[in-house]
Amino acid sequence: MDKNGIYEFLKNRGIWHEITEHKAVYNMEELSDVTLPYPEADAKNLFLRDDKKRVYYLITVRGDKQVDLKGFRREHGTRPLSFASAEDLGRILKLRPGAVTPLGLLNDDGHQVGFFLDEEFLAAPGLIGVHPDDNTATVWLRAEDLIDLVKEHGNTVRVIRIPQKEKGM
Asked: Taking the C-alpha atoms of 149, 153, 154 and 155 in order, what is their torsion angle to the nearest 10 degrees?
């Protein structure tokens, strides 16, 4: 799906959402220049793979968090992790770098990406802001609705406490 396809999909499903159109942003630093209605609910997404390129993960945390990948690996018994390539991102999620989003999991026809969502998104107000498969907008929706969409699509979803790097590390 493209951005308009995501909007139509959410509308047709009757899922509450708000849209913030903005300039293209490729990282959290660039997003800091954009005025957002719910900055505390903005998401950062890490598309990762194991060292054998067999298992893929999408880890979604609040924008101000730094993920401790070694801690994640220890807690979940994974093989060594690294960022997946732009080619893997395009092939599996049909996304471009800078537009990584949990909504891209709806493009994962093989259901090969496991989704790990930081439990902080379920705390009040329970919102999450993600790209609509395009980095020129942010879609705000209820985290529970996002979880339900990804589960219904067939991807594994785990809501967990994502290990965070200590400040200064």
From this structure: -60
Amino acid 15 reads I
| Structure tokens belonging to residue 146 | 């996002």
d(C-alpha 26, C-alpha 13), whole Å: 29
* Spatial CA neighbour of 21 closest among 3, 5, 42, 8: 3
The candidate with the shortest Cα–Cα distance to 157, out of 97, 118, 117, is 117
Q: Which amino acid is at 108?
A: D
User: Torsions phi, psi of 83, nearest 5?
Assistant: -70, 140
11-46: pLDDT as tens digits: 999 999 999 999 988 877 877 788 889 999 999 999
Q: Is the pTM of this model over 0.90?
A: yes
